[in-house]
Design a protein that fits this description.
By secondary structure, the chain is of the alpha/beta class. The chain has 5 helices and 7 strands, in the order E-E-H-E-E-H-E-H-E-H-E-H. Helices cover about 35% and strands about 20% of the residues.
């Protein structure tokens, strides 16, 4: 896909009404410092479309990025590390749940996990929650450039076991630095969009 247009179009907070978009949506979930913003920037070949931050928990809203007026990439609030109260975290959880329930255009949910570590309890909860809402999450194992190539498969296996993935589940090692995995993710997204048109 040639990206001619990419812009942050819609921002939804805890009290916002969710948009009723007419084009397909692809959502990205993951804990606060897993690299969602970096992935979206690398994915779109834009330096600073999504704001990245060294302090986790920056994304406190659902952000809808318009791509070519043909689809939305949807950045969900990060979970885990953000230094916020439990009640605010619960509100974020409700916001994500409301989106997963209400969006008529959501085609796939990508769950980002850090390839260097075994999945956390939060990762497992999110994975099961996405399944519970009727989606089969596609796992993106971020920060693959931080490992030696020879270690990647071992860590992918640990993620599969940690999340108890169903056989045949997709895990894509990804690096925002080297763009490893970018083509694979795009291919999956384009396949989902073609199914939509078909």
């Amino acid at each position: 896909m040639v990206i001619k247009h990419a812009a942050l179009d819609i921002v939804c907070g805890i009290t916002s009404t969710l948009p009723k978009n007419q084009v397909p949506e692809i959502a990205f979930a993951g804990k606060s410092n897993v690299g969602k913003s970096s992935l979206i920037n690398a994915f779109m070949n834009r330096r600073a479309l999504a704001r990245t931050s060294s302090s986790p928990g920056k994304t406190q809203t659902i952000n809808f990025y318009n791509v070519n007026h043909a689809m939305y990439l949807v950045d969900l609030p990060g979970y885990g590390y953000a230094k916020v109260s439990q009640s605010v975290k619960e509100q974020w959880g409700k916001l994500i749940e409301r989106y997963l329930h209400e969006s008529k255009q959501l085609k796939a949910v990508f769950l980002l996990v850090d390839i260097r570590h075994d999945p956390s309890e939060n990762d497992k909860t999110m994975y099961n929650w996405i399944l519970h809402n009727g989606y089969q999450p596609i796992i993106i194992a971020t920060k693959a450039d931080k490992l030696k190539r020879s270690q990647i498969q071992k860590h992918v296996k640990a993620i599969k076991e940690g999340l108890q993935l169903k056989p045949g589940s997709v895990v894509i090692p990804f690096s925002a630095q080297s763009k490893q995995g970018r083509e694979e993710i795009w291919n999956l997204v384009e396949k989902l969009l073609m199914q939509e048109e078909g």
